[in-house]
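Risk register update: the risk of archive-format incompatibility is retired. Evidence:
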Amino acid sequence: MQSAIRPTLFVAAVAVALTGATVANAENWKIMTGPQGGSWYPLGGAIQNVVEKKVPGVKMQVLPGAGISNVKGVQGGKADFGFGNAVSTVDGVNGRAPFDKKTDKVCQVATLYFQYFHFVALADAGIKTVADAKGKALTTQQKGNTGEQMTRHVLEVYGLSYDKMKKVNFGSYADSVAQLKDGHAQVFTLITTIPASSVQDLATAREVRVLEVPDEKLKALQKINSGYDKRIIKAGSYAKNDKDIQTIGTWTHLIANCSLPADKVYQVTKALIENVNDLGLVVAAVKGLTAKDMATDLGIPFHPGALKAYKEAKVM
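Archived output:
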């Protein structure tokens, strides 16, 4: 009787051991996204769902982050994937500030959508152009965020800097909105999609004005960083916003550590191409994204796995 049971127990033990080994050998990836309350964090969750369903043997953990710190995280091996803003990722590729050296381990996976820079002022603060913000209290994102970097650049082309402001606060979108609602700040800067929920929230309590970045300032910004591009915030995007507003912006894109296996990144890219509608359900700006859009060249080297997927899709 015992001899009959032992083989069964042995087989069960082997099965358990093999199952444990499979779990232990699963690849656990990390993706750096953005702060909670923005669009990047939920978009990271949507990508996680697609990857875990479509790429065998892979688990993905979604982490908060920011445009510049994500690039540094992928470069340093703290994350396998991350969201970046092209304007700052290109700085990394070229080894320009705020990066200490070239980010030679950062590869392009997919271009996702365009983000718009907002320079928002309280309507009763007497600020009609960025130049008028001198001596006012400004609130923006924490350092390591592309929006904060872009704020410094915009101030620079107007001959301004943080030193010329009354005070500068660095925090979350929610913190910034609260400061303007309470009158503790008069200017709020950020980079996000249109319409920005934080700006809409602010506009329910205070009348605001979104300031323009005209062509001559755009040209000056492009001398600082060629990744800046012109974009228009359409009339009606915000309360009492009755005319088109010219601003600047940059592309949000997905990056990966170049050392990730090409076959896995190929599977990830292919899965995103085939399930892009799932991403659009989470972030409206992604709706209508095509494989050709995803393959847009931003001046960042493509990961070989992503390149294979786009060539297979005949968009490169």
